[in-house]
Amino acid sequence: MKDMTRINDSKKVITTAIYFGACWGIVEAVLGFIIHSIPMIPGMAGFIMFPIGFYFMNRALKTSGTLWGISGTAVVASGIKLLDLFLPGLPAIYTINPAICILIESVAVIGTYYIFVRDTEKERHVGFAYIVSSSAAWRMTFILYSIILGILSISTEFIRQGSAHIVQFLLLGTLIDVVLITMYTRTRYFNSGLSKGIRPLHASIVLIAAITIKYFFIIL
Fold first, then answer.
1. Secondary structure tally for the chain: helices H, strands E
2. Which residues of 141-166 are buried (b: 16+ CB within 10 A; e: fewer)?
3. What gap in Å lies between CA 155 and CA 139, rounded to an integer?
4. What are the tens digits of pLDDT across the range 52-70?
């Protein structure tokens, strides 16, 4: 009986991760294409991508009931992002960095959730601390990651933009993250999981859709 329960729990986590990871991949692909195709505010992608990821990771958490839902969702979304490696003429680091960012975001969210939330009874009281720390943690980790890349001469693009840009990325980026996330975390929809779980068929359909959309943008 315990083995069956463990199998069912694992199946639920995997299905949830595929579903929300694919949804994240779809939104990231569409918005990313729009942002990079239309002249907008410089760095716009960096200001809105974390709130999107935070949304899907936490929906996965609420649906699966475990932090494995967050990490699995990020792995799927990161894998979908890596399909950009097939884009002709695009340096690999331009794809690998965003994919790693997604994984960094998941580590930050899991770490801060464990520190500030842990159980649903506390969540409503420390939600703001959870949001702020998640955003700040992933941004600080990304800055450290970028510094390491610069030291290793792998990529210096982020660091070469100067200290003012780095401070803006950390402070202004965190502020925008907090505002956007706070707005949607107050909705009833966000604070409810999919109690019946997600069917493997539905997860498969969304995953196929995500890969198809990615392929469409590659050949576009």
1. 9, 0
2. bbbebbeebeeeeebeebbeeeeeeb
3. 17
4. 999 999 999 988 889 999 9
